[in-house]
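Exam prep: given the inputs below (a chain plus flavin-adenine dinucleotide), describe the expected output before reading on.
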Amino acid sequence: MSSRKDTFTAQSSSPSSSSARTLPPGTILGPDGKPCKICTTFRDWKPPTAGKTTTTTTRRGNKSDGDSAAQAIASSSTVTAALAASSSTAGEGADIAWRAAHCPPDVESLGRATWTFLHTTAAYYPEAPSPTQRAHMLQLLHALPQLYPCSHCADDLGARMQRRPPDVRSRAALAAWLCTTHNEVNAELGKPTFDCGRVDERWRDGPRDGSCD
Ligand SMILES: Cc1cc2nc3c(=O)[nH]c(=O)nc-3n(C[C@H](O)[C@H](O)[C@H](O)COP(=O)(O)OP(=O)(O)OC[C@H]3O[C@@H](n4cnc5c(N)ncnc54)[C@H](O)[C@@H]3O)c2cc1C
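Solution:
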C-alpha cells in the first residue's frame, strides 16, 4: 500500500508547479499546495534559504551558549537518539536533536505525543463508561480529523474512522480499537506492528519485571 505521505510529497507534485520543483524530497504539501511544516519530518524539512552548514553551526553555537537542560534532554532521549541514528551524518543528527528540543514539533514528534495521549486516555477510560463518558470520548475522537494539525494525517484518520468507527463501549474495547488504528498507520508508514495483547503493559501497568515501577 502506498502511504498518504507518498501521495503528498513534493516529489509527486505536478511538474508544472515551480515551488514543488525546488522543494527537497520528502517535503509534504498541505491542502493549499504549499509546503506543510507540521506534516513533514525534521529530517526532510529544509528551509530553502538556510544553508545546511551554516544552520548546523549556528545551532551548535546556541547549544554551547548555555541551554544545557534542553541539550541534556535532547541527548538523553531515546527518540532523539533514534532520530540521530537514522540521520545520514553526525551533523544532521545533532541538528535534528537540536530541533527536537527547541523547535515546534514535526510530524513525528506530534504523532508520538498524540499517540501517548490517546493510548494513555484509553488506558484510564472506565471499564463500564456511562453514556455521557462514551459521548465525550466519541467527541474527542471525532474532533481529531477536524483539528489535527497534520492535514494528511487528519484526513487519513477520518477515513479510517468511517471505515471502522471507534468502539467506546469499554476500556478494553477502546484500547483495542486504538491499537488497531495505530497499527494501520504503522503499516502504512512501514513500521512494525505492535502486539495489541501488550497494550496495557505499555500504557498502564508497565512491564512485569517492575522496571517502570
Ligand atoms: C492519528 C495519527 C495519524 C498519523 N498519520 C501519519 C501519516 O500519515 N504520516 C506520517 O508520517 N506520520 C503520521 N503520524 C505520526 C506517526 O504515526 C508516528 O507517530 C511518528 O512517525 C513517530 O513514530 P514512532 O516510531 O516514534 O512511534 P509512534 O508510532 O509515535 O508510537 C509511539 C509508541 O507507541 C507504541 N505503539 C506503537 N504502535 C502501537 C500500537 N498499535 N498500539 C499501542 N501502542 C503502540 C510504541 O511503544 C511506540 O514507541 C500520525 C500520527 C497520528 C496520531
